[in-house]
């Protein structure tokens, strides 16, 4: 009882402090809101919407269960999750945060995975997509496209390591019997696909409409969290909490031989990955390797902003958030370690040339590459896609309310 009252007081004081800060720093709050809104409608919404819609339709048509049967011999011994986890993992890497949580929650609602399997799966299937790592962070912030290879390898190896580690989660408590499956053959997989499509008897138009409505609702929630945490991060900086926390962090950074100037960007990255990565790239006192290590941790930890999005999605199911949070901490350390270990054998050996380390190389991931062009096109066309999708959502919602 006392603990509950203490929690109530802490939450009430936090909200009051935020309200007072909004009044004290109105211009900074508006700027932070606009920054978060621009990020959402230019990049996040148009990049995630197609993946969410297609994923919902693949689940409805039974394609996910078809893939699950074929991937069962790989995913079960490696991660101790069903084969459908392979689909979630692949879509999570391709589309980025928080697609892994969205799909895991959807599979749990469908009853295709148990609660424990869902907690294992969600702990390693949420990650940054390659477009964000190479386009936004490497080229946009560091002006060094080749750095993206180190960040991407460290990030996805960290995901893999967390997945293998979390395979032991809940092993002593899982009592739910696994679904009896046939031999993982193509014929059996096709049979499962057909049965799933028959059981979901929604017409194509209804299935597509449900996919659009569900995806846009989730993306609206994500947009709210992005704007909120963008404002919180800015307010914490202006009221001095970020600097206060950075003082204690400087001691820890000194133990690992990292410049104390990285403390403030690190704290910012704990709350929001984009701002943290950008501030890290601007620290002149740190070497490029040290910046890569800190950025790898920030990308892997994914920030409280993304974690709040995941918590909101998981709250719709019985999936516990704690394993996901623990996985983010471990992945942060794993990714930072991999970035440090891969630096000399990979970056310095193959990429270190006479040119300055922050120059943009003319290569596959360099200036004029398809990846950078895709990022630029998405930035320009993103708002139009977002507006069109929101108008479609409004029309569909109005028709459903009429019925």
UniProtKB/TrEMBL annotation:
The keyword ATP-binding does not apply. Keywords: Membrane, Transmembrane, Transmembrane helix. Residues 44-137, 219-315 form the Nucleoside transporter/FeoB GTPase Gate domain. The chain crosses the membrane at residues 6-25, 45-67, 79-100, 121-142, 148-168, 207-229, 235-258, 325-343, 375-398. InterPro entries: Gate_dom (IPR011642), Spore_IM_YlbJ (IPR014226). The keyword Chaperone does not apply. It holds the Pfam family Gate. This is Sporulation integral membrane protein YlbJ. It comes from Cytobacillus depressus. The lineage of its organism: Bacteria, Bacillati, Bacillota, Bacilli, Bacillales. The gene is ylbJ.
């Amino acid at each position: 009882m006392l603990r509950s009252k203490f929690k109530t007081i802490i939450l009430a004081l936090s909200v009051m402090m935020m309200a007072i800060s909004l009044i004290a720093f109105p211009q900074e709050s508006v700027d932070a809101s606009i920054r978060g809104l621009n990020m959402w409608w230019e990049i996040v919404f148009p990049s995630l919407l197609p993946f969410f819609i297609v994923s919902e339709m693949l689940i409805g048509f039974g394609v996910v269960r078809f893939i699950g049967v074929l991937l069962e011999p790989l995913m079960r011994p490696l991660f101790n999750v069903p084969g459908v986890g392979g689909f979630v993992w692949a879509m999570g890497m391709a589309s980025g945060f928080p697609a892994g949580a969205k799909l895991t929650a959807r599979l749990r609602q469908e009853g295709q995975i148990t609660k424990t399997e869902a907690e294992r799966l969600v702990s390693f299937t949420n990650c940054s997509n390659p477009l964000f790592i190479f386009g936004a962070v490497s080229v946009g912030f560091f002006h060094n496209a080749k750095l993206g290879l180190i960040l991407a390898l460290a990030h996805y190896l960290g995901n893999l390591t967390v997945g293998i580690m979390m395979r032991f989660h809940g092993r002593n408590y899982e009592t739910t019997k696994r679904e009896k499956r046939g031999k993982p053959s193509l014929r059996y997989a096709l049979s499962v696909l057909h049965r799933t499509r028959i059981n979901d008897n929604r017409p194509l138009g209804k299935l597509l409409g449900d996919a659009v409505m569900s995806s846009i609702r989730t993306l609206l929630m994500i947009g709210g969290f992005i704007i909120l945490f963008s404002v919180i991060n800015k307010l914490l900086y202006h009221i001095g909490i970020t600097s206060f926390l950075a003082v204690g962090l400087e001691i820890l950074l000194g133990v690992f031989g990292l410049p104390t100037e990285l403390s403030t960007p690190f704290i910012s990255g704990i709350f929001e990955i984009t701002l943290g990565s950008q501030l890290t790239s601007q620290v002149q006192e740190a070497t490029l390797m040290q910046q890569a290590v800190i950025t790898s941790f920030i990308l892997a930890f994914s920030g409280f902003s993304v974690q709040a999005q995941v918590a909101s999605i998981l709250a719709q199911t019985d999936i516990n958030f704690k394993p996901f949070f623990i996985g983010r901490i471990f992945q942060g350390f794993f990714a930072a370690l991999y970035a440090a270990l891969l630096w000399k054998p990979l970056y310095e050996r193959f990429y270190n040339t006479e040119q300055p380390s922050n120059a943009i190389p003319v290569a596959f991931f360099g200036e004029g590459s398809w990846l950078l062009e895709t990022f630029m096109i998405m930035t320009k066309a993103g708002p139009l896609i977002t507006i069109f999708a929101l108008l479609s959502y409004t029309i569909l919602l109005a028709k459903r309310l009429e019925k």
